[in-house]
Amino acid sequence: MNLIVFSTSTAISRKFLFRWSVLITLFCSLALPVAAQPPASTARKQVYARVQQQAADAIRQEAQRNRWEDYQAKLNLFIPSEISQYAPCPEPLSVSMPGGERLDLRRLRFDVRCEAGSGWEVAVTVKPDIYLQVLMAKETLERGHVLSAADLTRRKFNITNLRSGYITRPDEVVGLTLKRRIRELQPISQSQLDTPVMVERGQRVLMIAIQDGVEARTMGVASKKGRKGEMIKVKNESSEREVSATVVDMGVVRTGFSTGQ
Predict the structure, then answer these.
(1) Is the CB of residue 227 less than 8 Å from the CB of residue 247?
(2) Using CA atoms, how far apart are residues 59 and 79, in angstroms rounded to an integer?
(3) 175 Cβ contact list (under 8 Å, min separation 6)
(4) How far apart are CA 228 and CA 204, in angstroms?
(5) Which ranges of the chain would DSSP assign to H, the alpha helix?
(6) Which of 234, 230, 233, 259 has its CA nearest to residue 247?
(7) Would you give per-residue pLDDT tens digits along the chain (261 residues)?
(8) Is there a contact between 160 and 106 (Cβ–Cβ < 8 Å)?
(9) CB neighbours of 161 closer than 8 A, spacing ≥ 6?
(10) Residues 44/46/47/53 CA torsion (nearest 10 deg)
(11) What are φ and ψ of residue 239, in 5° steps?
(12) Where is the signal peptide (predicted)?
């Protein structure tokens, strides 16, 4: 019977379909939950977003200055609990760094201010973890060893844990001497290195002097050992006069006066 009515009466079938569509719509509206409205922004969320952006920008600028390659940064933000007492700021937050442009990557501080109305201010600390390819010793190296490219490898390391610093480019260390023993896969820092000794005590050296645009050369004997740029005493072999000279190369010193004086 239903099939006959459905096929022979257009009016009845339309009425039937309309009722079912109303019921289905009603059922769906009851079964599906109403979409939750996004909560209003809080002062804490505002501070978090603003400081996170500011810290990321500061680290990005530091990476450009130091020519970091393929670094990764994780930001750990510490926001005072008092922020929960403040209403969201209707204007963009003002952020400043008390330390200026010089960054202490172990701990960054940001002063955040809401300048609208009576306003509010909080100090936020950011402790980043920055992973970067740094130079390490392939194997344990002893004090006095002169570094070569074969001694070095590069591995990712959290540089914020390196109090003595780090080095990323081999050309900065090749040819330098170790001041102390370095363990295998220990990051290398500038404080561990020294320029090689270029003049030994008692060594015959070439003395170069320039006076009034005229260069004079003679041989002398070093009274002490010296590294590049260091000032040492050198005794002129010809005049037997001792003068001050600057080490400029292997076995070479430069004086500011005529070598014959």
Answers:
(1) yes
(2) 19
(3) 146, 147, 148, 196
(4) 16
(5) 2-8, 10-31, 43-66
(6) 230
(7) 333 333 333 444 444 434 444 333 333 333 334 334 334 489 999 999 999 999 999 999 999 988 898 899 999 999 999 999 999 999 999 999 987 666 788 899 999 999 998 899 999 999 999 999 999 999 999 999 999 999 999 999 999 988 888 999 998 899 889 999 999 999 999 999 988 888 999 999 999 998 777 889 999 999 999 988 899 999 999 899 999 999 998 999 998 755 444
(8) yes
(9) none
(10) 140
(11) -95, -15
(12) 1-36
The gap between the terminal CA atoms of the chain, to the nearest Å, is 133
Residue carrying structure tokens 């804490």: 44
Integer angstrom CA distances of residue 132 from 2, 70, 147, 213: 77, 7, 21, 49
Q: How far apart are CA 47 and CA 95, in angstroms?
A: 9
Residue 256 DSSP code: S
Instruction: Tell me the sheet residues that pair with 216.
Output: 209
Q: Please give the Cα distance from 228 to 250 (Å, whole number).
A: 8
Give the number of other CB atoms < 10 A from CB of residue 205.
24
